[in-house]
Hints:
Blueprint: E1 3-6, H1 7-16, H2 21-29, H3 33-39, E2 53-56, E3 63-66, H4 70-84
Helix pairs in contact: 1-4, 2-3
Amino acid sequence: MAKTITFNELRKLKDSLPDGATHQIADKLNITVQTVRNYFGGSNYEFGKNTGVHIEPGPDGGIVVLDDTTIYDMALEILKEQNKD
C-alpha cells in the first residue's frame, strides 16, 4: 500500500537512523546500500536502483509517495528498537 509523506519527513527519518542502519536494511533486503540511499532521496542510479519513490515539488520539501513501504517500515522498526534502550 502506498504512503504519502513530505520530503522533509522522509529526510528526518533517514537522519534519525543510527550509523550502519542503511547497511543493515540493505543486507536484510539483499539490495545495495545506494538503493536504500536513493529511497531516502538520493539519486545515484549508477550504483543503486529506483525504489518506487515519487517526489512532487511543494511546501515542506514536496510530497513523496512511497509505492513500497518496506524500507520505510524497517527504518521505523530500527528507531523503535533504538529508543527502547
